[in-house]
């Protein structure tokens, strides 16, 4: 993993270009603790911060090539190309000569051979910029699933781009301004492809190429999910899922640095751990490291309607079964509620979040793991691929006329404006027309779902539901994993998000994905011989949140401080009386049923995070 930044401008002088690109690059220092570099040509400048994973001595960037009289071509690249060895052999057969062992040079020479279509050859997670001096054109290319981020902003005479919004905000022509559309996107609990919360800042779409030159820009798609007939029967499908996962895990274990597994003891991470442990053993390598998370509570773990079991015993059972070197990372309530940790999470994500202790624990877990490993495999995104969320198995929610993860709110309170929004000023929500914004985004998302002729009604609807998750919810999780992981410079790889694997499972009928009535039954069947029975049969348990009552008490204390500060920037955005009522009486929240108490707590988390963001980024709100 790395950080990339760049600026192309056909009018600016060289000194200004160098100063600005250097500032943009410096803003991404957290993504690249192993070095940085800049590269310049007439009209273009690239920056790069490196978190070295492959070819430690030879993979410095930006990387350029000048040969056979051709003008310089340079790349600044973030990610991993998992099939780089096969592509290198193919390119060598075509006459290319390599001077490094790294995948960056494969990206560069892939462009020299295949041009802007090079992304179609790559299997991995990647985002990169190519400057072709001879053509005076910039190409911004992003991986098929949008695992790695790539943002940009058009400027009067050029374009700026970077891995994160902070790189663009380091450019003097880019302001931290959020208009009504950006505020609606921030509060909408979905991720609209190509959209940023900052005015004028956009994202290169997953599976797309953005081309920019003197005549303007154009974006084209080189990959998207397709609807295809599924001809394999159930036993064959189970076998193919297993085989494909084995191939994906083997590819993604390639690294020249210490690596490990994030192991919660749930089905998703346990399957990957079992496959990875087998692979390293078969290849004569030392046992893998694995890491789990434990949040301390004076009362100990208590089962509720959201979480029936604690992760700890399952993670330890799986680690013992797979033979990994396991370490449990324990976090205290004090650490989770620390305002400095909240600030670090906001800065890592360049935006506020309602996920409070979940963000804090993910960030602190990454920080602790980074002391022992540079790269980990994560079970993230299996629920999106296989349909593992509880709401996917609730027919009322499935057929609700909105995004399923929003439809579940109606089970608890049809009048609640949405997760994290309970304390937002109702007048602001009406002014933003948040319900209308979500409805419009939902219609756009449905219109993108590929159609398979002759598909039965329920199969068609479940295809829509899975597609919604893969294109509108997946981005939320991928961004969160990337930013909170790269904040402490930990590379997270997501095998379930391999685009070829996703394409196959996407076209597997829902009747197979859910063939025994349990969530992710197809994945369970494929992993039947890999896991101890207690782990294989464990019911899904969401990402852990603290159950310590002291955590909510501390949040409410911090909320009282915010409400007592007349200069707090969040005050115009919230329902102050409602916030004060909760701040002064935390028992109103803690006394509610499990899910509802959590929903109310998200409302408090959002207020605190918003306040931190507005102050830290000096945001101009134009709503």
Summarize the structure in words.
The protein is of the alpha/beta class. 43% of the residues lie in helices and 16% in strands. The chain has 26 helices and 19 strands. The chain has a six-stranded antiparallel sheet. It has a six-stranded antiparallel sheet with strand order 4-5-6-7-12-13, covered by helices on one side. Helix 7 (267-282) links the parallel strand 14 (259-262) and strand 15. Helix 23 crosses helix 26 (594-617). The protein is globular, with a radius of gyration of 24 Å. The model has no long low-confidence stretch (mean pLDDT 94).
The fraction of residues in strands falls at: 15-25%
Poorly predicted sequence stretches spanning 5 or more consecutive residues: none
Gap between N and C termini, in Å?
A: 36 Å
Rg of Cα set: 24 Å
Major beta sheet, strand line-up = 2-3-1-9-8-11
User: How many strands appear in the DSSP assignment?
Assistant: 19
The number of helical segments is 26
Proportion in helices: 40-55%
Largest sheet descriptor: 6 strands, antiparallel
Shape: globular
Mean pLDDT: 94
Which structural category do the helix and sheet elements fall into? alpha/beta
């Amino acid at each position: 993993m790395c950080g990339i930044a760049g600026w192309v401008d056909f009018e600016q002088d060289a000194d200004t270009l160098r100063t600005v690109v250097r500032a943009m690059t410096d803003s991404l220092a957290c993504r690249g603790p192993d070095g940085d570099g800049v590269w310049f040509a007439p009209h273009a400048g690239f920056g790069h911060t490196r978190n070295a994973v492959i070819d430690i001595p030879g993979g410095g960037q930006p990387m350029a090539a000048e040969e056979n009289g051709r003008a310089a071509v340079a790349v600044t690249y973030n990610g991993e190309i998992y099939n780089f060895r096969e592509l290198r052999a193919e390119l060598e057969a075509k006459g290319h000569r390599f001077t490094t062992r790294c995948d960056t040079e494969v990206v560069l020479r892939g462009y020299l051979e295949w041009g802007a279509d090079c992304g179609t050859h790559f299997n991995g997670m990647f985002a990169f910029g190519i400057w072709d001096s001879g053509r005076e054109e910039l190409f911004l290319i992003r991986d098929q699933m949008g695992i790695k981020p790539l943002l940009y902003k058009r400027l009067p005479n050029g374009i700026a781009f970077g891995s994160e919004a902070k790189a663009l905000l380091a450019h003097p022509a880019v302001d931290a301004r959020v208009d009504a559309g950006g505020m609606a996107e921030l509060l909408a609990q979905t991720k609209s492809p190509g959209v940023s919360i900052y005015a004028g800042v956009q994202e290169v779409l997953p599976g797309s190429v953005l081309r920019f030159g003197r005549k303007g820009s154009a974006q084209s798609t080189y990959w998207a999910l397709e609807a295809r007939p599924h001809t394999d029967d159930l036993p064959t499908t189970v076998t193919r899922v297993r085989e494909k996962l084995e191939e994906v895990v083997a590819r993604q274990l390639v690294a020249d640095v210490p690596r490990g597994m994030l192991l919660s003891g749930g089905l998703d991470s346990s399957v990957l751990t079992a496959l990875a442990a087998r692979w390293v053993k078969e290849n004569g390598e030392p046992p893998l490291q694995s890491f789990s998370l434990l949040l301390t509570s004076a009362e100990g773990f208590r089962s509720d309607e959201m979480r029936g079991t604690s992760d700890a015993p399952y993670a330890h059972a799986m680690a013992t079964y797979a033979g990994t070197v396991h370490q449990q990372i324990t976090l205290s309530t004090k650490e989770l509620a620390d305002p400095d940790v909240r600030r670090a999470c906001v800065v890592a994500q360049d935006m506020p979040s309602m996920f409070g202790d979940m963000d804090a624990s993910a960030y602190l877990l990454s920080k602790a793991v980074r002391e022992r490993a540079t790269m980990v495999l994560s079970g993230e995104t299996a629920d999106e691929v296989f349909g593992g969320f509880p709401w996917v198995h609730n027919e009322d929610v499935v057929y609700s006329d909105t995004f399923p993860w929003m439809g579940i709110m109606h089970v608890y309170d049809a009048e609640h404006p949405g997760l994290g929004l309970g304390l937002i000023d109702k007048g602001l929500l009406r002014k933003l027309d948040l319900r209308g914004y979500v409805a419009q985004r939902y219609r756009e998302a449905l219109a993108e779902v590929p159609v398979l002729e002759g598909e039965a009604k329920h199969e068609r609807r479940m295809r829509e539901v899975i597609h919604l998750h893969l294109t509108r919810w997946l981005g939320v999780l991928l961004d969160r994993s990337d930013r909170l992981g790269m904040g402490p410079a930990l590379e997270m790889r997501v095998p379930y998000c391999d685009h070829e694997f996703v394409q196959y499972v996407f076209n597997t009928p829902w009747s197979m994905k859910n063939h025994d009535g349990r969530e992710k039954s197809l994945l369970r069947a494929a992993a039947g011989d890999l896991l101890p029975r207690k782990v294989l049969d464990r019911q899904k348990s969401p990402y852990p949140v603290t159950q310590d009552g002291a955590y909510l008490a501390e949040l409410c204390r911090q909320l009282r401080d915010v409400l007592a500060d007349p200069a707090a920037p969040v005050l115009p955005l919230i329902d102050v009386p409602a916030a004060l009522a909760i701040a002064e009486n935390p028992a109103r929240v803690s006394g509610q049923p499990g899910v509802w108490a959590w929903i109310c707590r998200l409302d408090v988390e959002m207020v605190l995070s918003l306040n931190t963001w507005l102050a830290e980024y000096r945001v101009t709100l134009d709503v």
